[in-house]
Amino acid sequence: MAVAAGVWLASQFPMPLWLPALALGVSVLALLGAWRLRSAAETIWLAAFGALMALGALRYTLSAPLPSPQSIARYNGQRVTLDGVIAAEPDVRPTHTNLRLRPWRVLGASGFDEALDDLVLIRIAAGTDATRWRYGDALRATGLLDAPPRMSAFDYREYLARQGVFSWMPQPRALARIGEGYGNPLVARLLDAKDAVRQAVRRILPRPEAALLNGVLIGDDKDIPDAVQEAFRRTGTSHIVAISGFNVSIVIALVIPLLGRMLNPRRAALFAIPAIAVYTVFVGASASVVRAATMAGIGLFGALFWRKGFTLNTLCAAACLMLVANPHTLFDVGFQLSFMATLGLVLYADRLSGPVRTWAQLRLRNERAQKAIMLILDGALVTLAAQLTTLPLILATYSQLSIISLPANLLILPLQPPIMILGGLAAVIALFAPQTIGALAALPAHAFLTTTIRIIAWLSEFEAAAISVYGFGPPAVLAYYIVLLALTAFALQPALARRAIADLLRARLKTTAILGIAGVALALGGVYWFQRPDGKLHAIFLGGSAIIQSPSGHQAVFAGGGGDVASTLDRIAPLWDREIELLITPQRSEYTRRDTLPLLQRYRVQTLVVPDGSEAEGDSLAEWQRVLVSSVGRVLTASISTSFTLDADVSVVVEIRAPERGGSQVIGAQLIHHSVVIDLVGRYEAVGHPAQPDLIFLGPAKADVTKLNRARPRWVVWADTSGAPLAGLDPRIRAVSLRDVGQIAYTSDGVRLIVRR
User: Fold this and answer.
1) Which residues, in sequence order, are bridge partners of residue 37?
2) Who contacts 668 (Cβ-Cβ below 8 Å, separation ≥6)?
3) Second label for 134, Cα 20 to 30 Å away, from 14, 51, 80, 584?
4) What is the pLDDT of residues 21-62, one digit of tens each?
5) What is the value of pTM for the model shown?
């Protein structure tokens, strides 16, 4: 916990290297002094906590996601020819393939450069190249090198930066293999074996059973159809295709007994540790697998010295080692869910099953009946224990609560051990035997896989299988864990202590109630005070979208795409205001609909303004039409100079940015507040700008410098990640690219314009 707190603190508040280093030195000295002076245990623990927290902050600061001085990122925005080696397993998806390239040399406008650091992500569209790329291949790629984009759902650039990727080439003009075998030989052989298993499973099983088995065996769930994945999400059972502690325990269960017959248990444990390490690399070394493997390694290492491990200590030690090795693991959702699920099992599984087992023994005299009922209830209680600690993370990450997760897990969890064991055996047979024999060997696993998929598909069809929960942000997550921690601490107290606390609370019930109500009122008052309208116009620009709050607190959104508008609005909107007075979508496209849907699902919209024309076809069309009925007061088709009033002195005027062409019209808008005029440009078809506005916001637009110089705004902001810098712009115009800063906030009282990057 201390190391994680230090990592989080350093990530939120960047600090110079000397500060955490100094804090670590002071904390270590304090710890040594307290130890030598035999101070109170609380003092020693406090000093140790401070030292570990400083260690976490120092480790994060040393590995902050920043490009090195020799980073390939200094060539971003240029067309280059790049030589390098594929440094990780190719990420093959139905729509594209991602290759992570470690650069050797680059040929740019200034010539050859071989002093290069960091990685490059090369994305190849599906169907454009039939070459099967492999880890260790040397490539030559030609194309535009650029900074990774910031996606609407999450900050893709920050996600890649935490992995040392600061550049990408999304559509190389040319890509050729110039060598092979430059990777680690052991890793290459493991990845070849993994691919052989993948192909063997595809030969002996149909889809989607083959895709599900590959997910269970080797962690490759990319071939699972979207409909099946959605069914798993709706039923809260996606974890069965995530390699985790269950798979590692199967490896241990296979290795230890086999070697234990030939060797003693200690030597068997010694051989099991490298077996787990090999398996971890084999399945991809995701955060959840590394956590489980580290815990298993610590436990087996203890077995070498005849020491029995304590699971909670082992879990914390594994997490600490992982964060010290790579502090960015803390921000991996897989690590968070895996750690919290294991913590729930450690803290609550036995405490939940103990009373149930006692009840079964008292009520059921038949021993077989007791075992049968406990076999059923144990699965439900284990699932419940894991959900107690993972629920807030699931709500915050996926904005969805599965109502039937408990019965769904109860039905399919008993099927998973046979799937892994029988499916793994069939895959091994298929590697060395003809396809017919492999298919026959796969029949038992096929039956379990089909049963799992059909149960999940059937349960997911219930309309109330899952409900959407939006706005469950970090404050709610923190509040949940504080309450859960308090209740857990109370439950862990001895019976006499719990009784004393309960008696004290009952004796002072009136005082406790008054203090509780006062605390809630104070918290609500503080929230209102900090979120109340301040009489100024606020606008936040991110991606191609803009969020506007009027001086009186009314809200408008220009949904130009790119940038997580819904989550940003969740953070800045008052808790009591779940309404958007005006929502403008500049295009009728699948891309715009996907970005706008989260807003309509979370907020009530008074007026939605759309371009003229018909809706574009796409996967989101049915959901779009449904939420229009339930969440939108009125839908208006844009016309020239249509004006909407947010406040007495704030108006939004719709502008037709391009005439209708090919059935598609593009619109923009102007935000007017006294003398401040902000021009919102939806697309590159923008035909003009008002003279001398305070700001022109170009969403995914390509700026026309001649028109900008003629309009002469005070500020120009553009979000087009592929556009070149605004060469030739009037030096009196201050320009900034959202590609570099992510988002910019503006505040105006009608006279002054205050800019915050």
Assistant:
1) none
2) 586, 654, 655, 657, 679, 680, 681, 682, 686
3) 80
4) 888 888 888 888 877 777 777 777 788 788 888 888 888 888
5) 0.73
